[in-house]
TrEMBL record:
SUPFAM superfamilies, per database record: Acyl-CoA N-acyltransferases (Nat)
Lineage: Bacteria, Pseudomonadati, Pseudomonadota, Gammaproteobacteria, Pseudomonadales
Protein name from the UniProt record: L-methionine sulfoximine/L-methionine sulfone acetyltransferase
Annotated GO MF terms: acyltransferase activity, transferring groups other than amino-acyl groups
Name of the gene encoding the protein in the UniProt record: yncA
A Pfam family recorded for this sequence: Acetyltransf_4
Residue ranges occupied by any N-acetyltransferase domain in the UniProt entry: 1-159
Length: 170
């Protein structure tokens, strides 16, 4: 397993994982699959912003998962905070890939001198909430019924990690 920055030829693998989450989970609150151009535009925007998109490549050379962060909110005062996402392909969950992606992503965020990372997680997503707790994230809020998918309301749990708690200024 190798973790590295995503390249153009990883987009098909990223697309498969993303669309599987759209169609079969409440991890993403979209109803419709997207196409390769959509993921290419996303990758290019992240690269333009200087934000990482990481992929985990399995021994067969396939994309087993990906993780990234981008701006949390647009206003200038939030510029030291990012919101991340992490996805592992259905057949390779539970063997440490999500955690490995997150550890590398946290390293990148610290190297970029960011201060806070925020995760917005569907409240019944036990795997994600547990993984984030194990990584030191703490529960920062619970919004009831702010989403709707598969015929039911969804709650949103915010988790956050202060990346450089010793810093009083950036
Ligand atoms: C959430 C997700 C990224 C975790 O990645 P993963 O590679 O399966 O997780 P890991 O194998 O690295 O495990 C990390 C921790 O979570 C735990 N975990 C993994 N799957 C779990 C599950 N289904 N239920 C409870 N805990 C689980 C592991 O035991 C491990 O904890 P430990 O260190 O105490 O042993 C992955 O399950 C996934 O892609 N899910 C669908 C998309 C998603 O929900 N993304 C997050 C959106 S916020």
């Amino acid at each position: 397993m190798q973790i590295r920055d995503a390249q153009e030829n990883d987009l098909a693998g990223i697309l498969d994982i993303y669309n599987d989450a759209v169609l079969n989970s409440t991890a993403i609150w979209n109803n419709n699959p997207v196409d390769l151009a959509n993921r290419r535009a996303w990758l290019e925007e992240r690269q333009r912003q200087g934000n990482p998109v990481l992929v985990a490549i399995d021994d067969g050379g396939q994309v087993a998962g990906y993780a990234s962060y981008g701006p949390w909110r647009p206003h200038e005062g939030y510029r030291h905070t990012v919101e991340h996402s992490v996805y592992v392909c259905d057949s390779q969950r539970g063997v440490g890939i999500g955690r490995s992606l997150m550890l590398e992503l946290l390293g990148r965020a610290r190297a970029a001198n960011l201060h806070v990372m925020v995760g917005a997680i569907e409240s019944e997503n036990r795997a994600s909430i547990h993984m984030h707790q194990q990584l030191g994230f703490f529960h920062a809020g619970h919004l009831r019924q702010v989403g709707f998918k598969f015929g039911r309301w969804l709650d949103l749990t915010f988790m956050q990690l202060i990346l450089n708690p010793e810093r009083s200024t950036p």
